[in-house]
Design goal:
pyridoxal phosphate binding; eight-stranded parallel barrel; Lyase, Ornithine Decarboxylase, Chain A, domain 1; Diaminopimelate decarboxylase; TIM Barrel; alpha/beta; globular; 2 domains
């Protein structure tokens, strides 16, 4: 998106505001389907937790995507957005049997990642198709908080527990129709991904009625100029060939499934903030903006880097700034970053703000969550109103004191 367009959106809708470029989302979706076009049956299930606005979900529905959900509420959002139950896979972690049964009753594909719930569910609902999430014990991901396939992870059923898993399946006579893994986010080395895939193929051989194999996702996107990313085309070529060979060994065509989130929406997102104060201290120049980690927590939570540009002065002389928020504790978006000279009231644009940004926003410090705008067919559409003071009070109950 052009800087002038973003400036106009900030003017029309105020700041802070999240902006999403529909064309970029569509481009990334087509890029992924093209990379795996040699697979007969491919299913992409967009990971709702990355960005769950219902208008974004409707866009994915229009493109033919399925959904990957991790909560009963995300399932309900998907149904509300027009997805059919069979287009949705539900992969929770540590939830109650009651929630899993509610999801199954809605008709979605259930994916179970622990032996206790698997046995309970299989005993009560042996005919309901179930996918099993395997932990391949492969360390992958750009940060320990987003590496979920290693031996100390809370996710998945350990490959070392396969004998017990098979005994549960045999005893309950349950219907296992899928095998799943997810090793982590920001995967750079596709050989690690392919290695984990071999573990999944070996596991799949134990089950005779499979319909699909789900390889998760975690593809890395570039966060700054010159940054490296997952070579999705190379992965598509290598994994497609191996998957097709496995289907021949298995005796029938299976569906290859992925659940990308960040790959599809991260680069489509921009977060626009206004500079409230430019503050010079003895050692630092701070650009203090009208937002904080209540709106964009990733830099503080993961140490993630979002490229920041001054779209009010894109050709200005570059200086070094620390960009910080208004939350009353350490609240840093960027340290000692080269940015075109900043003045108060300038608009700063944070790139890669489409994934795990608004979806993790909060009302900390009793601040309002920002508006969301979708740039679709060359027009800005408001898809979430900015919160008001009434929204802050909406579910609070003031008792007589």
């Amino acid at each position: 998106m052009e800087g002038n367009t973003l400036l106009q959106i900030a003017k029309d809708f105020g700041s802070p505001v999240y902006v999403y470029d529909a064309e970029k989302i569509q481009f990334q979706y087509k890029r992924l389907t093209s990379a795996f076009n040699k697979v007969k049956h491919l299913k992409l299930n967009y990971a709702v937790k990355a960005l769950s606005n219902i208008s974004i979900l409707k866009l994915f529905n229009q493109m033919g995507s399925g959904l990957d959900t991790v909560s009963i509420q995300e399932v309900q959002l998907g149904l509300k957005a027009g997805f059919k139950p069979e287009q949705i896979i539900y992969t929770p972690n540590g939830v109650s049997l009651d929630e899993i049964e509610k999801a199954a009753k809605l008709g979605v594909q259930v994916n179970i990642d622990n032996l206790s719930i698997l046995e309970q569910f299989g005993t009560k609902h042996p005919k309901t198709p179930v996918c099993i999430r395997i932990n391949p014990h492969v360390m992958a991901g750009g940060n320990t908080n987003i590496s979920v396939g290693h031996i100390d992870s809370k996710f998945g059923i350990s490959i070392h527990q396969i004998p017990l898993l098979l005994r549960i399946v045999e005893n309950t006579k349950m219907n296992i129709n899928g095998i799943h893994m997810h090793t982590g986010s920001d995967i750079l080395d596709i050989d690690v991904f392919l290695y984990a895939s071999e573990i999944l193929f070996d596991t799949a051989k134990h089950f005779t009625q499979l319909e699909f194999i789900d390889f998760g996702s975690g593809f890395k996107v570039p966060y700054k100029p010159g940054d490296i990313e997952t070579n999705i085309e190379e992965l598509g070529e290598k994994l497609s060939k191996r998957f097709n060979d496995f289907c021949k060994e298995y005796g029938r065509e299976l569906t290859l499934a992925f659940e990308p989130g960040k790959f599809l929406v991260s680069e489509a997102g921009y977060f626009l903030t206004k500079v409230n104060v430019v503050k010079q201290t003895t050692s630092t120049v701070f650009a203090q903006v009208d937002s904080g980690f209540n709106h964009l927590i990733r830099p503080m939570l993961y140490g993630s880097q979002h490229e920041i540009s001054n779209i009010s002065n894109p050709e200005g002389r570059e200086r070094f700034y620390s960009v910080v928020g208004y939350i009353c504790e350490t609240d840093t978006f960027a340290n000692n970053r080269r940015i075109s000279e900043i003045k108060e009231d300038d608009i700063l644009a944070f790139k890669n703000a489409g994934a795990y940004c608004f979806s993790m926003a909060s009302n900390y410090n009793s601040r309002y969550r920002p508006a969301e705008v979708l740039w679709y067919k060359q027009k800005a559409h408001l898809i979430r109103k900015r919160e008001t003071f009434e929204d802050i009070l909406n579910h609070q109950i003031a008792i007589e004191i």
